[in-house]
Amino acid sequence: MKICSIGAGYVGGPTMVVIAEQCPEIQVRVTDINQQRIDAWNSDQLPVYEPGLAETVKKLRGRNLSFTTDIDTAIQESDVIFLSVNTPTKQYGEGAGKASDLKYIVSAVERIAALATSDKIIVEKSTLPVCTANKLRAILASNPHQCHFEILSNPEFMAEGTAMQDLRHPDRILIGGEQTESGKQAIQTLVDVYAHWVPREKIITQNLWSSELSKLSANAFLAQRISSINALSALCECSGADVDEISRAIGADSRIGAKFLKSSVGFGGSCFKKDLLNLIYLCESFGLKESALYWQQVVDMNEHQKHRFARLILEKLFNTLSGKKIAIFGFAFKQDTNDTRESPAITVCQDLLKEQAFLSIYDPRVPETVIRTDLAGYPSDAIEVVSDPEQAARGSYAIVILTEGEPFISLNYKHLYTLMKRPTFLFDGRNGLDLDQIRSFGFNAYGIGKKR
Ligand code: NAD
Ligand code: UDX
To answer: Between the chain's N and C termini, which has fewer beta carbons within 10 Å?
Structure first.
């Protein structure tokens, strides 16, 4: 069997790598229109950082795994084609700011329709609005060879930073398809691929529309939990309650569960906001105003949380940041990734730059060019990007932590304090540090949902 992915990004890359790893007899091709990205996949500097990814790619490249821009040959030779292209929020025309921009998926499918000379299974791996398969089917009907195409929905639930672990040991695999004879056969073909390593009871098969909508719903539910705990964090700060204690108390209820209750400066990443906005747009399109407003509030709460954190910094630094140096620790949207899409750090840094602060940014995973692009439009001499946390801290009034986990939580804060200006502040936007200990070093320390 031969399979390929159209799209070699954060999803197309790692998912195909794990299929190639688990199914040695399947030839896996990962394709993209972006030559630079494909060159990077073929080099030692992969375009995606994920723990464990580089080692696996090294092992499999040249065996049953390849990366290429020759999309046409891949389409012609593959039995199963995964569509893993990006589906960002549309920025123009009808639905601007909310709807999914489907231009990449449409152009990939047009290419399949034009080139395919044999029957194929087309798998929606990208996150798509419900009923997209109807549109894809209409495009595929223009195929001059009258090949038969089965469309399956197989959304990806991996999270960045833990992609390899999530893909090797998924909670579930979801496969939606048409409930016709040929549809069921196609579903079985894909089930057989995953059954190489995923226990059969974790492979859920269902109708196409449920599967398409399940992915948007899952992300909306996860984002909703973060906005819910963040809404409570503000109340904790006024009342003396501690948000981590609230999380522990409510998370111990097995009906609620402990995950995704970590209060923070807000959620980021390329999925949650985009998928929520798409869900809102879908609700609006069907005239479901109240449902749309309900999910809109999850987005609004997240925007509020980012601005609220920036305002706290301003307020504690005596309402003036002009000309003050501030050390920013962490720019990626979460730990163990080089991805900054929708990172809360962008909004917080922008708010601080509006107050004319001077930012010294330390995040060893994120290249300077990416940080500067994300903060474009602000004076470039108000920003420095450094590779050493001491350099960021030296002469600054405050450390602001914006990405969770390592390498930021295990820095020597006692020592960093000695390099900084007085009075000295630390704002932990991820609640990863023991604030009492940080205070014992001399800092005025603040967390999210912590007593002020
Ligand atoms: P990405 O931007 O990292 O990768 C998409 C790739 O597709 C890019 O390299 C782009 O050049 C390529 N591409 C676009 N149009 C193409 C075409 N016509 N032919 C060939 N290549 C083309 O995006 P991503 O983060 O991998 O996300 C892809 C999809 O998966 C999105 O729908 C997203 O919502 C979904 N998803 C993402 C995550 C995540 O954590 N990033 C998780 C689950 C699902
Ligand atoms: C998300 C979904 O988790 C994943 O299932 C889906 O396939 C893609 O979208 P991702 O965006 O990669 O994955 O990361 P995730 O771990 O969900 O974190 C998203 C954001 O929420 C990050 O900014 C993270 O820091 C934040 N977060 C997460 C919190 O603030 N608190 C939490 O308790 C959990």
So the answer is: C
| Strand arrangement, sheet containing 203-207 | 65-68, 27-31, 2-6, 80-83, 120-124, 149-153, 173-177, 203-207
List the residue whose alpha carbon is closest to atom 20 of ligand 2: 267
Domain C-terminal end among 152, 174, 198: 198
Give the mean pLDDT per block of 10 residues along the chain (452 residues).
98 98 98 98 96 98 97 98 98 98 98 98 98 97 98 98 98 98 98 98 97 97 98 96 98 98 98 98 98 98 98 98 98 96 98 98 97 98 98 98 97 98 98 98 98 84
Whether 325 is in the pocket of ligand 2, judged by its Cβ within 6 Å, is no
156 lines ligand 2 (CB under 6 A): yes
Domain boundary among 169, 198, 227: 198
CB 326 within 8 A of CB 354: no
Angle (deg, nearest 10), helices 208-239 and 289-316: 40
CA of 161 to the centre of ligand 2 (A): 10
Range of the domain at 10: 2-198
- C-alpha 118/C-alpha 112 separation (Å) is 11
- Whose C-alpha lies nearest to ligand 1, atom 20? 32
Q: What is the pLDDT of residues 125-140, one digit of tens each?
A: 999 999 999 999 999 9
Residue 131 annotated as catalytic: no
Burial class, 282, CB count within 10 angstroms (exposed 0-12 / middle 13-18 / buried 19+)? buried
Q: Would you say the C-alpha torsion 441, 447, 450, 452 has a positive or negative sign?
A: positive
The pLDDT tens digits of the residues spanning 393-444 come to 999 999 999 999 999 999 999 999 999 999 999 999 999 999 999 999 999 9
Is 168 in the same domain as 259?
no
Please, what is the Cα angle at 229 between 173 and 157, to 5 degrees?
15
3-class SS of residue 288 = coil
User: pLDDT by residue (tens digit) across 180-192?
Assistant: 999 999 999 999 9
123 and 181 share one domain: yes
First to last CA, the chain: 61
Q: Which two tokens stand for residue 339?
A: 């991805």
